[in-house]
Amino acid sequence: MTKPSWMLVLAGVVFAAAGLYVGRNCSLATGCDAGTAIHSVREPKDWANKPRGTDLRSLAPDAAICVNPVKNLSDQPVDMEHVDELLASEIAKTGYRAAKIGDLACDATAYTEIVHVSNGQRVQAELEFRLVFAGEQAPRFSATAKGQSESAELLQSDSSDPSRARAAILAAFADQARKIQLAQRQGMAPYAGVQQP
């Protein structure tokens, strides 16, 4: 066997052994368990404003996200009946398993507060939320989400109709779920402050 072909065979063996090692030892998954839903992410070279070696992690597409009871911290009365289920439903639409806390074994928990609800032709709602991975104390992702209702004229309803506030909150939940999904693509560093949308 000539020297160049011998080197190609050796390179093939090394790649095959590396593939078996990665597959058997789950080197991309924290905890190294088959089916682990939280993964380490290789840091992109152009990761903005992050020091080299940052511990980036993300959730697997079928991970379980538990919804901690949503709190209303706005100065407006809001119908909170079934809001936890509504948020879980919006998160589930992005491909994750989601339910109220206590209904699933959690890979991560979403903590959400309604911080602002404004009345007018369009009701606007603003949320602050955090995503905390199982076994961790600090959030991996913290951001705001916003939503608004249809205009009162279009709906032919009173601007103070409580269903409009609920529609705005549901739209904000959809925004929150979308932001959680997008954050998984780049991985999430340990909490360093609220990320603005």
Helix content: 25-40%
CATH H-level superfamily of the domain at 61-186: ABC-type transport auxiliary lipoprotein component
Structural class: alpha/beta
Instruction: Catalogue the unreliable spans.
Output: 13-35, 42-53
State the name of the first-level CATH class of the domain at 61-186.
Alpha Beta
Order of helices and strands: HEEEEHEEEEHH
- Spatial shape: elongated
CATH architectural category of the domain at 61-186: 3-Layer(aba) Sandwich
The overall average pLDDT, rounded, is 76
Task: Describe the largest sheet.
Answer: 6 strands, mixed
In what range is the share of β-strand residues?
15-25%
Enumerate how many helices there are, as a single number.
Answer: 4
Query: What is the CATH T-level topology of the domain at 61-186?
Result: Rossmann fold
- Rg for CA atoms: 22 Å
In total, the number of strands is 8
Distance between the termini: 59 Å
Describe, in plain words, how this protein is organized in 3D.
The N and C termini lie far apart (59 Å). The strands form 2 sheets. Strands 3, 4, 5, 6, 7 and 8 form a 6-stranded mixed sheet that branches. This protein has a two-stranded antiparallel sheet with strand order 1-2. The longest helix is centred in the C-terminal third of the chain and has 25 residues, at 162-186. It has a domain at 61-186: ABC-type transport auxiliary lipoprotein component (Rossmann fold, 3-Layer(aba) Sandwich). It has helices at residues 3-25, 83-92, 152-155, 162-186, and strands at 38-40, 57-59, 64-67, 71-72, 97-100, 108-118, 124-133, 141-148. A hairpin with a 5-residue loop joins strand 6 (108-118) and strand 7. The chain has 197 residues and is an alpha/beta fold.
